[in-house]
Amino acid sequence: MIRDLGKLWPWLRQYRHLVLVAVCLVPAISGMQAALPLILRATIDHGIIPGDLHYLAWMGITYLGAIFFEYACRTGQTVTAAWATHQMIRSMRESVIRHVLGLSASFHDRSLSGALVTRATSEFDNLSESLNQGVLTSIVDLAVLAGCMIGMLLLDWRLALTAFVMIPVLILVVRGFSKGLRDSMLSARKHLAALNAYTQECLYGAATIKTLNAAPDAANRYERLNDTYRNAQMRSVVLDAAMFAVLDGFSAMTTGLVLWLAIRHLAPDSLMAGTISAGVLVAFVQYVQQMFEPLKQLGNKMAMLQGAFTSIDRIFGLLDTKEIIPGDTTFEMREGNVSFSNVTFAYGQRDVLQGVTFDLPAGKSLALVGPTGSGKSTIIKLLARLYDGYRGSITIDGVEISGISPTTLRQKVAIVPQDIVLFDGTLRFNISLGRDGVDDHAINRALEAVCASDFITKLPGGLDFHVREQGANLSHGQRQLIVFARALATNPTLIILDEATSSVDPDSERRVQEAIESMLHERTVIVIAHRLSTVARCGQILVIKGGRVLERGSHADLISANGLYRKLHDQPGTFLN
After folding, report:
1. Residue 338: phi, psi to the nearest 5?
2. CA distance 308 to 53
3. At what angle do helices 122-130 and 167-204 cross, to 10 degrees?
4. Pairing state of beta strands 350-360 and 548-553?
């Protein structure tokens, strides 16, 4: 447990001054709790019984002052500890998001986005609540428990040892329930992640579910996942309730045993008769109550403690994932010469590319065509360093990309993907994405290049127009042009179009093609397209099938060769003439 909590220190270190204040206030709280029964004993033995009203008044003021001082210390300790915890959680959230965004595409391929969202949101919420309501308050409870035990020994060591005899039994009970709570809460968090992942899928595909009348099946599957999560959560609730009941029973029996022995000591025929005053008895009973209250609270907080450890395991399980694309060499792309030499790449055990070789001179264009699943998209993903682990050589301007920092490389490589992704925010943000150097001048230049300035000026607010999630308030052609302008905004040296015009209406495609003709003649361009109008403009065409380059040449050369390219060209629906 201590080892798990120790993992948080790198993020908590910068707020150690708050932690120090919170820790220093714990002994004060414990001391005040231990002092209250002693003040009560003195009040009874020297104030109430003798009838000394002056002494009684002063002790009453002292008792009241001790209570106020304890509350002030508790307030300060709670506020400072909570502030340090929330600051730490904020820093950890940022670290997790940065880490996840830096992981390779292969990690995201096999990870459910909803499960990742759970780890980045609800796991931190659970950790924050568990730390504030469980771990931190338990530290105070343990300090109070230690103070009470010392006070009980000072009052009467014989009665104190009677009360202490149950503590080892209680520790065994807590340890016994601890493992079951940890396992049940880990299971509940996993089922919650699965539930959130499916919820996200349902919301993302709501239109498809409706049009295909798949809502009943989706609801049934959601109900099954929800029931599984509920059952896992209830197992932890039952264990927590059972543990609290056992601890409560032990505390009641121990209190009764201590009172029985104390009454026997007060009996006239007892050898210890007269050794226990009324003030000592009252104070000791109060100590017993104070001692078992932290124990009961500690048992009640075991679920929270286990929740904290479970969240730590899941959060650091993500942070410990090292699937990061390597490379730390800075690189400034000047020309954009691209070369693949005998490149082979596999997803798992299946080879997707097999000995792919080609050269693309700077300022020239290359089209990749072939059947679905032939490896076209894999080529551009390797070039953009979204994946690693290829065999062979990929160079840009003669530099092997495997040693180049992915961030540095992507500063001069722009990809226009097939899938359009727009964010909830202004049009300006959707084009700039907060990247350095992408100001309004660069945005307007990119919009003019894709012939999108005319429709932007017609939108309410222009660049301040609020785009809804996935561009729901824009036409498909407008969304595609915005994504194209986003790629051009950084003035890239190498541009990759991955089916970038496959879903654009003819008028929008015409404007994009005009932009390509006028704007991209000095850049290196790689195109994956099914439209003849896009492919035919490229100086070199590679025909890929089964991860191998079968044909290469210009459009006219490949038509004359009467090979696979000609077959794809003549196949209805493959190219749009």
Report:
1. -115, 135
2. 51
3. 160
4. unpaired
Strand segments (E) across 411-498 = 413-416, 425-426, 466-467, 494-498
DSSP 8-state secondary structure symbol assigned to residue 44: I
Which of 397, 408, 381, 394 is closest to 336 using CA atoms?
Answer: 397
CB 497 within 8 A of CB 527: yes
What's the predicted TM-score (pTM) here?
A: 0.66
Q: Are 366 and 525 a contacting pair, CB within 8 Å?
A: yes
* Burial of 98 (C-beta count, 10 Å sphere; 0-12/13-18/19+): exposed
DSSP 333-365: -SS--EEEEEEEEEETTEEEEEEEEEEE-TT-E
Q: Are 418 and 372 in contact (CB under 8 A)?
A: no
At 179, the amino acid letter reads K
551 contacts 543 by C-beta, under 8 angstroms: yes
Nearest by Cα to 385 from 341, 327, 337: 327
Separation of alpha carbons 234 and 129, rounded Å: 19
Cβ atoms 119, 193 nearer than 8 A: yes
Which ranges of the chain have pLDDT less than 70?
Answer: 1-2, 4, 114, 134, 212, 262, 264-276, 295-303, 306, 500-522, 530-531, 533, 572-577
Strands 494-498 and 466-467: unpaired
Among 526, 423, 524, 535, CA closest to 482? 423
Helix segments in 349-452, DSSP class H: 376-383, 406-410, 427-432, 440-449
Q: Is 45 left (phi over 0), alpha (psi -120 to 50) or beta?
A: alpha
Round to whole Å and give the CA distance between 481 and 477: 6
The tens digit of pLDDT for each residue in 443-468 reads: 888 888 877 888 888 888 888 888 88
- Residue reference for tokens 């300060």: 76
Domains of the chain: 2-319 (1.20.1560.10), 327-412+495-503+526-577 (3.40.50.300)
Cβ-based neighbour number of residue 387 at 10 Å: 18
CA atoms 125, 129, 132, 136: torsion sign: negative
